[in-house]
Amino acid sequence: MINSVASQPCRIRPRASAGRCSASRKTRPRNARVSDAGAITYSFSGVLGDCATPPLPGVCINDLSGHSVVGQFTTDSAFSTLTAASFTVIGGAFTWRTLVPDQIPNQTTFAISPITLFVDESLLLPFPEFERFILSLTFTSPLTPSAGSTLGSGYIERRGAVGIRNPLVSGAATLVPEPSSLLLVATGIIGLLWLFVARAGAARAPSDSAFM
Fold first, then answer.
1. Residue 194 domain-assigned (yes or no)
2. pLDDT digits 0-9 by tens, 58-97
3. What is the CATH number of the domain that holds 70?
4. Using an 8 Å Cβ cutoff, are 74 and 83 in contact?
5. pLDDT value at position 178?
6. Domain-embedded: residue 188
7. CB within 8 Å of 135: residues ≥ 6 apart
8. What total number of domains does the chain contain?
9. Which of 69, 209, 42, 43 is nearest to 136 (CA)?
10. What's this model's pTM, rounded to 2 decimal places?
């Protein structure tokens, strides 16, 4: 038969006579990992090429070639989720944009990794005003919490009342510094300026006293 022993709170005892006791402290397993949910934001800018997969053979309509795609996206340090994203085309006769999260009813799917970003946003508007905006980016090297990357390939697409599909022929994602990092840089610059002024004042002091 197994005897059950009631847990007793720990008391301060001499080390030599210390026995077994139960404590209410919570301990973390040795191999437990502390989650890092720090947000990382990248800015993106790219240029669109000639339209691809036109509706009719040899005909390219609703073209956005030559225009720029700009935006930002925010993820966590593990690149497991897309916290926010906002992309748009500068200029052009037709609107294209993606927004995550969006205020109007929509259904958005995404996939993100250190080398890819894919966003598919469907606006659930009454037919035939149903619109779908797609963004696909593939980078030449992995994004990291400390650096961006250049674009390897990608495209934008709009389906619905207006059909658009243009490849991205160039582009890059750059890391957006955190406000705390900017504050440290500003503090360092101010400190260097103060040191420069202090040394300059100390260098002028002997020469000024010589005329007294």
1. no
2. 566 678 999 999 999 999 999 999 999 999 999 888 889 9
3. 2.40.128
4. yes
5. 76
6. no
7. 69, 87, 98, 117, 118, 119, 154, 156
8. 1
9. 69
10. 0.66
